[in-house]
Structures are given as structure tokens and as C-alpha cells.
């Protein structure tokens, strides 16, 4: 998904909270911003919504080798 989503593009994933926590960990490794929010039926529903936004970033051109 990282290759097909443009910088500052968003993805919305709805699933059980256990699955979304695993996905959020992967998303953090790709330098995306992610927010886990409650289901529209309330916080007691085990299904949650993960909203992730791919950030635009470039490498540091002044790195030393």
C-alpha cells in the first residue's frame, strides 16, 4: 500500500482493535501518522477505525559518509 498511496494520501481501516494495533505498529515503521478512533456506535464496540496518512518526507542530503 505504501507504493500506491501518494504522499499525504489517507487510508481508513475498520477492524477489531487487536488487528488495528498490529497495523498501527507497521504504519509507524513506515513514518505514517495514524489515529485510532472509536466506532460510531460507541467506545464499547470491539470494532475500531484506524485513520492513517502517509507523510511526505525526504532523506537528509547533508549526511556524512
Automatic annotation (TrEMBL):
List the InterPro entries hit by this protein, alphabetically. Answer: Put_SAM_MeTrfase (IPR004159)
Q: How does it sit in the membrane?
A: Single-pass type II membrane protein
Keywords annotated in UniProt: Glycoprotein, Membrane, Methyltransferase, Signal-anchor, Transferase, Transmembrane, Transmembrane helix
Domain of life (superkingdom): Eukaryota
Keyword Transmembrane assigned: yes
CC annotations in GO? membrane
Among its keywords, does the record have Protease?
no
Looking at its record, which EC class is this enzyme? transferase
Under Pfam families, the record lists: Methyltransf_29 (PF03141)
Molecular function (Gene Ontology), one example: methyltransferase activity
Where's it found, cell-wise?
Answer: Membrane
Single GO BP term: methylation
Q: State the EC number(s).
A: 2.1.1.-
What family does this chain come from, according to its entry? Belongs to the methyltransferase superfamily.
| Protein name as annotated | Methyltransferase
Q: What is the lineage of its organism?
A: Eukaryota, Viridiplantae, Streptophyta, Embryophyta, Tracheophyta
Amino acid at each position: 500500500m505504501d507504493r500506491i498511496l501518494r504522499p499525504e494520501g489517507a487510508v481508513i481501516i475498520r477492524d477489531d482493535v487487536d488487528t488495528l494495533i498490529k497495523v498501527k505498529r507497521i504504519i509507524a515503521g513506515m513514518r505514517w501518522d495514524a489515529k485510532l478512533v472509536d466506532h460510531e456506535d460507541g467506545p464499547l464496540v470491539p470494532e475500531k477505525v484506524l485513520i492513517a496518512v502517509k507523510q511526505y518526507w525526504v532523506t537528509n542530503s547533508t549526511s556524512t559518509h
